[in-house]
């Protein structure tokens, strides 16, 4: 007999021996699983019917657990040996891989035939049964500890209803582990090219996906593991592998360098690059796992579903990393803003935009859907865009708490810093100054418009379901609290205070310019009485010179507001100014003993008509916004007999108010009306 023949016979004998040993081990494993499954069924019945037998349950559990601690490692070892004999894991890269011309890697699972496929199937089913048994035991023990003695356990613990293995499938994890070991070599070579790392993991996951789905899904169904997808489990396992690498090798080094190195710019750039890669990778892998199948496993989108997979979950266990990331984002955002915030063009609307707004039809739609609607400066749009970039990153995080923490530490701080700068710009201008320049007024208007636009954007964000959920999670005691409530309140107060100061400044300037007019209001028209014309019509009268300067100032300011202030605030402002002027002029008449002559009444009516004319472009009936002045003009226009009649009624004090209302006088009191009528020189 030749030496070659003897070697072949020996090899066959060893092979036959290995096969026999493997078959015996498989039989023993299946027999042990069958016995422990029967024990588990008995324990479930006892837990339901006699929960007070807790010591017996614990004693039996202890013995079964000892058997499992021996059985599981042995079963996994045998399965790994079988995988190795099948050629798993395959070579990850071909010679053309780095030239993006790599061929699809052959999947050893797809190449299995005959006896090999049968052995793998048996080992697969045995491991699934073992994991299923352990999962049932853990569920029963959890429920037993959760409910008090004597409480009936829920029917969900029925042994006949297999549960989904939410934490991965062992047999698929066993496919991932050896691949991960081979990938570490490549990862270490690509430390400066992390995109290669992500590309390799994605490629391996994609190339083996169909094979895993076609070969393993039928086995999972045969094992009656309800609700588990081989495709999702494979993708999830590969993501966990990459997540562990990032958590163990990448971010610890980046965090150390960020805290201790002087070159924080380089570390920040690397950090953001990794985050971008992780976010993109999550989306690509989620699409890969769920294409053509319902989303029900680790990639389920609803909060609270165990095992929802995302590479960004590495920040969940390391809140200090999350804070570093937020600081980097905040610093990057503020650096971008600094490039624009000192430019004058960033704070003004361009001439083209101004012309478009000025020529547009004036409406009171009050819907500020864009920056142009708010007439906000360009800087406001930049702030919103940069903030939303940070928020989009936060929305990729897998939990609400992480999103809240990240947004509060990045986007919210960034917005608050900008809002404070708006407030400071307003405070730097003395709005109440009588010599306020147009440029200074435009500075305040631009800040108000920016605040209004940001307020509108934050309100829209608050209405998004993601922010509604975060608002509730952020403050469980106040369910109606919106996420950006504090920021919106700050902007509302900034806008309101600024408009009040603008209004006050306009009224003070008006008072200063028409001081002589008010002081001499009693002598209106006297120069016309001295003339030879005994009767002068109103249309022949001109505006009082002392009143003209105040009207010119008011007209110029209102035109600036109309062209530059946003529509919502402009309506509030001109109505407030009209109300202030109405009370100011009326009080000058009613609170003093002004005695109007007939000609003085005509002159006062001409002057007030000029005042109303300034507000006529903003409404069809400006006199409705000057009710006190309108009522005073009606009183001054009454004839001699009617005046005497009213004074008689006032002296009796019976139906005085009704007499005023009958004549359309609703905004003057009886005392004010009586004082005006008694001071007339008829």
From TrEMBL:
Any GO CC annotation of this UniProt entry: Dsl1/NZR complex
Bias type Polar residues, positions: 1-17
Coiled-coil regions, chain positions: none
Any one biological process term the GO annotation gives: endoplasmic reticulum to Golgi vesicle-mediated transport
Residue numbers spanned by region Disordered: 1-20
InterPro entries in UniProt: EXOC6PINT-1/Sec15/Tip20_C_dom2, RINT1_Tip20
Protein name stated in the entry: RINT1-like protein MAG2L
Organism of origin: Iris pallida
């Amino acid at each position: 007999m030749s030496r070659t023949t003897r070697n072949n016979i020996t090899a066959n004998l060893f092979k036959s021996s290995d096969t026999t040993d493997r078959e015996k081990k498989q039989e023993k494993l299946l027999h042990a699983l069958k016995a422990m499954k029967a024990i588990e069924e008995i324990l479930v019945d006892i837990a339901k019917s006699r929960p007070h037998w807790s010591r017996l349950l614990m004693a039996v559990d202890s013995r079964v657990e000892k058997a499992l601690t021996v059985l599981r490692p042995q079963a996994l070892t045998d399965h790994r040996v079988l995988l190795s004999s099948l050629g798993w894991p395959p070579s990850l890269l071909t010679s053309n891989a780095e030239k993006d011309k790599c061929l699809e890697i052959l999947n050893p699972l797809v190449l299995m035939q005959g006896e090999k496929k049968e052995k793998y199937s048996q080992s697969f089913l045995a491991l699934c049964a073992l994991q299923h048994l352990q999962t049932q035991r853990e569920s029963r023990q959890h429920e037993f500890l959760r409910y008090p003695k004597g409480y009936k356990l829920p029917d969900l613990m029925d042994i006949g209803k297999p549960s989904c293995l939410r934490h991965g499938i062992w047999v698929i994890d066993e496919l991932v582990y050896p691949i991960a070991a081979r990938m570490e070599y490549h990862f270490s070579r690509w430390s400066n090219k992390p995109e290669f790392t992500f590309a390799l993991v994605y490629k391996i996951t994609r190339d083996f996906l169909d094979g895993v789905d076609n070969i393993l899904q039928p086995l999972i169904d045969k094992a009656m593991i309800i609700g588990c997808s081989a495709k999702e489990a494979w993708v999830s396992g590969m993501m966990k592998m990459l997540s562990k690498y990032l958590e163990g090798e990448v971010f610890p080094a980046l965090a150390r360098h960020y805290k201790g190195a002087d070159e924080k710019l380089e570390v920040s750039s690397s950090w953001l690059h990794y985050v971008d890669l992780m976010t993109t990778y999550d989306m690509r892998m989620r699409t890969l796992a769920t294409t053509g199948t319902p989303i029900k496993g680790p990639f389920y989108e609803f909060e609270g579903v165990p095992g929802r997979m995302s590479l960004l979950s590495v920040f969940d266990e390391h809140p200090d990393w999350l804070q570093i990331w937020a600081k980097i984002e905040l610093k990057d955002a503020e650096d971008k803003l600094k490039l624009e915030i000192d430019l004058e063009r960033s704070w003004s609307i361009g001439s083209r935009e101004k012309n478009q707004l000025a020529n547009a039809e004036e409406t009171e739609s009050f819907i500020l859907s864009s920056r142009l609607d708010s007439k906000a400066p360009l800087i406001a749009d930049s702030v919103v865009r940069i903030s939303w970039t940070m928020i989009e990153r936060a929305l990729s995080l897998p939990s609400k708490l992480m999103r809240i923490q990240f947004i509060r530490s990045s986007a919210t701080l960034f917005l608050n810093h900008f809002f404070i700068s708006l407030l400071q710009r307003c405070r730097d201008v003395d709005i109440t100054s009588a010599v306020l320049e147009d440029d200074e007024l435009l500075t305040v208007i631009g800040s108000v418009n920016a605040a209004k636009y940001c307020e509108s954007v934050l309100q829209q964000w608050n209405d998004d379901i993601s922010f509604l959920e975060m608002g509730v999670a952020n403050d469980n005691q106040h369910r109606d609290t919106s996420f950006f409530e504090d920021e919106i309140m700050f902007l509302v107060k900034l806008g309101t205070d600024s408009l009040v100061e603008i209004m006050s400044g306009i009224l003070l300037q008006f008072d200063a310019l028409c001081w002589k007019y008010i002081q001499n209001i009693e002598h209106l028209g006297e120069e016309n009485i001295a003339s030879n014309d005994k009767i002068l019509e109103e249309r022949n009268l001109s505006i009082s010179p002392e009143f003209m300067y105040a009207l010119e100032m008011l007209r110029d300011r209102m035109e600036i507001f109309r062209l530059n202030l946003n529509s919502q605030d402009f309506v509030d402002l001109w109505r407030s100014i009209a109300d202030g002027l109405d009370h100011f002029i009326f009080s000058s008449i009613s609170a003093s003993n002004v005695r109007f002559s007939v000609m003085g009444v005509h002159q006062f009516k001409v002057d007030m008509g000029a005042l109303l004319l300034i507000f006529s472009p903003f409404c069809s009936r400006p006199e409705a916004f000057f009710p006190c002045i309108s009522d005073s003009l009606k009183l001054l226009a009454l004839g001699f007999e009617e005046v005497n009649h009213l004074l008689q009624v006032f002296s009796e004090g019976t139906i005085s108010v009704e007499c005023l209302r009958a004549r359309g006088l609703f905004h003057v009191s009886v005392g004010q009306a009586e004082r005006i009528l008694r001071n007339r020189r008829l």
